[in-house]
Amino acid sequence: EAGVVQSPRYKIIEKKQPVAFWCNPISGHNTLYWYLQNLGQGPELLIRYENEEAVDDSQLPKDRFSAERLKGVDSTLKIQPAELGDSAVYLCASSLRAGEETQYFGPGTRLLVL
Amino acid sequence: DQQVKQNSPSLSVQEGRISILNCDYTNSMFDYFLWYKKYPAEGPTFLISISSIKDKNEDGRFTVFLNKSAKHLSLHIVPSQPGDSAVYFCAARSGGSNYKLTFGKGTLLTVNP
To answer: Which of A14, A113, B42, B90 could form a disulfide with B104 if both were Cys (CB 3.0 to 4.6 A apart)?
Structure first.
């Protein structure tokens, strides 16, 4: 069974530029999560989707971050414009359903903003 | 305010010995606790979990113990192997319909041959 797929794996951009990350969850998983992981820290939840619906986006900085999950499968996380402090690893995870305690993570996208 | 704390940034153990990783939490409403293992340049990999209504869960070389009164859990790895060298994250799930995972900062385990 294929795991969570993310692309790109690495991205280097200049500040004020836009950037987008893509995630394909495990087949059949209805719940999708985007996490942010800063250096030396654990992952922190940005947004959770149940199918197409964003059910928890309270931690998403909505002035510059946006996300979508069209058709309840793939998801895209966008930053516009990027700031130096956005340099981090962006992780996508999925679980079978909302009540499933185990979340399965992708390899992450490492973003460097110069 | 950190709700999940891993107070040891690193731990070094000899191959074949026991590794004990610790985690403390403050929120008594957490209903599940999980341990994830992370290798460099990879995402966290699920290792083992325990429900808040249990005090022990075992899976092969890995055992997680939960002490609710002390708000403390630990991961035991016996015997430790060099391939176990990684960063271990403790995570706790919020109860109700939130399902949010709160992670600790991680502990770097090094198993020396």
So the answer is: B90
